[in-house]
């Protein structure tokens, strides 16, 4: 290993200090005492450089990430080799001879630019991200991965704009289908004895959306828009960058679109579904509290929800729900994305 290495990290990482004596990522020493080092900080060695980030399982790291102000951007530094500890074994795909791994850094950065664009609401950005990854798969399969930059350039053309607007017009959000799909995943996750979710995370959402043992579809249909207004009033309006910061940070930290086995599009759907489960639980919390959520409440829930795709049982629950619909993009778009109010008025 060289004496020093290039390290890329979100600008806020260098200022993080974990103050939590009860942080779940502070390991215990062999004598039972707690070591004074939070393991939220993680380095991954990719293509000759290190990427440094914070795992959101630490509530303090979670608050530090979510409530940053300003745009997400990276800092590049040179650090002594002794300060870097690659955790590549946590992401087995990095050692596998997959064609997409060769283009991981390009894919990662381009996807994050799409997630961060302010042209569109977040759900529209997620759709654009899916379209980009479908195009990227075609390029890589045709042996043109070195020309991935051409995809984004083509998105400035009137032809792509027409294609994208047509895709949005074809999407018709189905709220009951949305709840049924996500709630099935939540119930499977909650049944796992090692689930990272707290019991109250699930019970709040059940009460907010009237998802009892014998759900009444009329009650659920009436509850859905009320709960969505609670999310806006108590979360997204007072904390306008929170969901964007969550998506960007998770994409970078967990190394999407190569976080799990199954290919780029499979990674995309796992990422989107996990984010929508988080949004559902956050909506339930806002609807029950009926007041602007505190940073402590948001960070606590987020630190638990951020672990879902990393838990084998939780990932299995997501993949089980995804499997019957993975090849039907329109069904997935109608189920997951609230975009009908933006389809006619979106402009690049």
Describe the structure.
The structure is a single chain. The chain is of the alpha+beta class and about 350 residues long. Helix content is about 50%, strand content about 5%. The protein is built from 13 helices and four strands. It has a four-stranded mixed beta sheet with strand order 2-3-1-4. A hairpin with a 2-residue loop joins β2 (about 40-45) and β3 (about 50-55). α2 (about 105-115) packs antiparallel against α9 and α7 packs across α10. About 35% of the residues are buried.
Question: Summed up, what is this model?
Answer:
The protein is of the alpha+beta class.
Q: Give the class from helix and strand content and strand pairing.
A: alpha+beta
Taking all residues together, what is the mean pLDDT? 89
Give the oligomeric state of the chains in this entry, treating copies of one chain as homo and distinct chains as hetero. single chain
Shape: globular
Beta-strand percentage? 5-15%
Helix content: 40-55%
Q: Largest sheet, if any? A: 4 strands, mixed
- Between the first and last Cα atoms, what is the distance in angstroms? 45 Å
Kindly state the number of beta strands: 4
Give me the number of helical elements. Answer: 13
Strand order of the biggest β-sheet: 2-3-1-4
Uncertain ranges: 341-348
Question: How are helices and strands ordered from N to C?
Answer: EEEHEHHHHHHHHHHHH
